[in-house]
Amino acid sequence: MTERKVALVTGGGSGMGRATSLRLAGEGRAVAVLDINAAAARAVAEEIAAAGGTALAVAADISRREQVRAALAEIRGALGPVTILVNNAAIENFCPLGELDDETWDRLMAVNLKGFYIVTQEVLPDMEAATWGRVVNLSAIGAQTGAPDMALYTASKGGIIAMTRSLAVELGRKGITVNSVSPGFIDTPMARRAIDGDLFPVPYEQIVANYPIPRLGLPEEIAAACCFFASEDAGYVTAQVLGVNGGAAV
Fold first, then answer.
1. Which of 19, 43, 100, 221 is most buried, judging by how many CB atoms fall within 10 Å of its CB?
2. For this structure, is 153 an active site residue?
């Protein structure tokens, strides 16, 4: 059915969002690549088009409802209603709790938690009209295990897990599933910035050496999990948190 073909990936311009956008397009979805970085979104959309897929680049700050609404109007006009949503866009923070300030807290929560709520709420009418929808939320291993100097970031991701489960209960009768993928230590531009900035308490090689699968994960491995949750095969799967983390947390 055509109403099931359009996917929106937030933070689609790099890392896990880029990999998920490419995979969804490869599986025949029309993909709206949304990113605050317009050039990055455009590059991914062009990559999809060059491979024979259908994509649209849109720029928006997901914490700003008017920007999200404008982006969705453009997406609906070009591609149609959105029935697959991958909430991926996020910002990181490394800071001891005693050094956090209110402005930093508010900005990260506005993107990492409120942004997920805004985008999901604005897309929901399309899914309700189709009586079919897939929402996939990216959380994080730190929300399950804790992480030093990351209380703010992990709190936002813990909120995503809780919201995922509650929305799954709320929306299941409408034909909409809501699941979360919880990445471990994935080799993304965000992770590389932290590695290069020496923001982890020990070298990252020491961290992953203790994993059952002792390496960094790949963005494509997160994309595979997201695309499973977005598929017809996952129609009886909802409220789940799938850890893609090399066995570092269960």
1. 19
2. yes
